[in-house]
């Protein structure tokens, strides 16, 4: 598993590969988007209908209505006047007949409306006509003087009659049907969003088993540890979970049997290699004996690597707190005793991770061994990244080409195509490293060392870090407990 060299420290490549929106978020976006589209379409339909019903706007017909009613009141007698007023009273249009002139003054911006009513009625040009915007109940039915008073405002029209008296009309206002003081349309919208919210919660509940299943499959792919997912949700989802649980068990058993066979063969080979080595010791020295001993040494190293690979497949990843600084100091002392060019930095304060001490020591030994074999030296550095610990091993060899950085983690793959033990191992060192590191929830990254050479970085979660807490909280058992 490789990564580009420009990736910042502590960044996980697999995190960047995750989808931006999960299935629950996508369903939520679809539901909310559908609601918005429906509301917009309803608004467009309403506006279209209103334009078709009153192409000249509601104001001009209202003036015509007032002028016609005033003319009618001038034609009928006092006994029929009340009947005419009741016949024309509708929601948003309340006419009354008064004998005293109402105290209404026409503002300048409504002067054209007063002139229009005089024109429609005819008669004397000095007829008393007054119009004013009257605020709603919240402003005490007073005159509108501020923009915020326009809410619920009504138009008051007063027309003097030739027969005496005045027609006083209160028109317009808030025609929206209200429930509990709120417009019914607003209440419908609120109820719609509440229903959508409840639907989203239901969708989240139904899709949660799929999220748990995805987390378990991801962890199983990295650690090969079967984790049974509780069978919850719809019948088809339960079938999928049941199939995945069975698949995990079968795959784990197959890998376990493969590992056992590999370990058994490697163990038996070590017995035969020991016998051959003893027999070679009894032979007289010579060139052929030396070549046979070199071949036996290579076979012995290959068997040791195969055994280590078999053990790493199901090696425990949690169990104790391991100080990487102590492991690094022990490895450096051992390499210096053998005459290796090794240096260490950043190991002054303890850096603790959770895992198996032997497995992590194997990681360090393999990285340092590769650096000494291919790069003549190994510069080890330990860096505290907050929630993670970085183990860095630099060498001064030819480096690893970018095109081959993903392949070097495959079993038995070597950048050097030769199988000669003098030029390197069998190609299991980095495979074991990645297997152990990923089993501990970490990552191995290959970069270029500044100035030439290869740089291998191992990122491991620090003991007690948020990543490990999140990993523990995301297990199916913890999820089922939360539900």
Automatic annotation (TrEMBL):
An MF annotation (GO) of this entry: phosphorelay sensor kinase activity
UniProt keyword annotations, A-Z: ATP-binding, Cell membrane, Kinase, Membrane, Nucleotide-binding, Phosphoprotein, Transferase, Transmembrane, Transmembrane helix
Localization annotation: Cell membrane
PROSITE patterns, alphabetized: HAMP, HIS_KIN
Residues in HAMP domain copies: 204-256
Membrane topology of this protein: Multi-pass membrane protein
Transmembrane segment boundaries: 21-47, 180-203
EC number: 2.7.13.3
One cellular-component annotation, GO: plasma membrane
Keyword Repressor carried by entry: no
Enzyme class, first EC level, given as a word: transferase
Catalytic activities: ATP + protein L-histidine = ADP + protein N-phospho-L-histidine
Protein name as it appears in the record: histidine kinase
Annotated organism of origin: Xanthobacter autotrophicus (strain ATCC BAA-1158 / Py2)
């Amino acid at each position: 598993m490789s990564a580009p060299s420009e990736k910042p420290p502590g960044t996980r490549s697999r995190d960047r590969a995750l989808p931006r929106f999960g299935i629950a978020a996508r369903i939520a976006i679809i539901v909310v988007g559908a609601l918005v589209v429906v509301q917009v379409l309803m608004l467009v339909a309403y506006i279209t209908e209103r334009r078709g019903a009153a192409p000249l706007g509601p104001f001009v017909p209202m003036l015509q209505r007032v002028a016609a009613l005033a003319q009618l009141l001038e034609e009928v007698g006092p006994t029929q006047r009340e009947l005419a007023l009741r016949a024309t009273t509708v929601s948003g249009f309340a006419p009354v007949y008064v004998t005293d002139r109402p105290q209404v003054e026409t503002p300048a911006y409504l002067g054209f409306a007063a002139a229009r009513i005089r024109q429609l009625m005819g008669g004397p040009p000095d007829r008393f006509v007054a119009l004013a915007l009257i605020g709603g109940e919240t402003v005490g039915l007073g005159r509108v003087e501020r923009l915020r008073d326009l809410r619920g405002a009504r138009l008051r029209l007063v027309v003097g009659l030739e027969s005496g008296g005045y027609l006083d009309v209160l028109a317009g206002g808030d025609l929206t049907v209200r429930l509990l003081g709120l417009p019914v349309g607003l209440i419908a919208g609120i109820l719609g969003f509440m229903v959508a919210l409840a639907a989203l919660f239901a969708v989240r509940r139904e899709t949660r088993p799929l999220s748990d299943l995805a987390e378990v499959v991801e962890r199983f792919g990295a650690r090969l540890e079967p984790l049974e997912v509780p069978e919850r949700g719809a019948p088809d989802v339960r079938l999928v979970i049941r199939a995945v649980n069975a698949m995990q068990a079968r795959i784990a058993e197959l890998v376990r049997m493969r590992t056992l066979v590999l370990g058994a063969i490697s163990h038996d080979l070590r017995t035969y290699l020991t016998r051959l080595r003893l027999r070679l010791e009894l032979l007289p020295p010579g060139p052929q004996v030396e070549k046979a001993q070199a071949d036996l040494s290579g076979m012995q190293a290959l068997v040791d690597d195969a055994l280590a690979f078999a053990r790493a497949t199901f090696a425990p990843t949690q169990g104790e707190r391991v100080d990487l600084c102590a492991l690094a100091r022990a490895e450096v002392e051992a390499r210096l005793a053998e005459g290796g060019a090794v240096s260490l930095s950043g190991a002054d304060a303890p850096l603790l991770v959770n895992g198996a001490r032997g497995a992590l020591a194997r990681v360090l030994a393999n990285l340092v061994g590769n650096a000494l074999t291919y790069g003549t030296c190994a510069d080890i550095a330990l860096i505290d990244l907050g929630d993670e610990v970085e183990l860095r091993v630099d060498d001064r060899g030819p480096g690893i080409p970018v095109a081959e950085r993903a392949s070097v983690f495959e079993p038995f793959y070597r950048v050097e195509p030769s199988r000669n033990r003098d030029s390197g191992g069998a190609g299991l060192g980095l495979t074991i490293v990645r297997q152990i590191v990923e089993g501990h929830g970490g990552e191995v990254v290959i970069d270029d060392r500044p100035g030439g050479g290869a740089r291998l970085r191992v990122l491991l979660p620090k003991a007690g870090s948020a990543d490990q807490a999140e990993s523990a909280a995301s297990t199916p058992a913890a999820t089922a407990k939360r539900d």
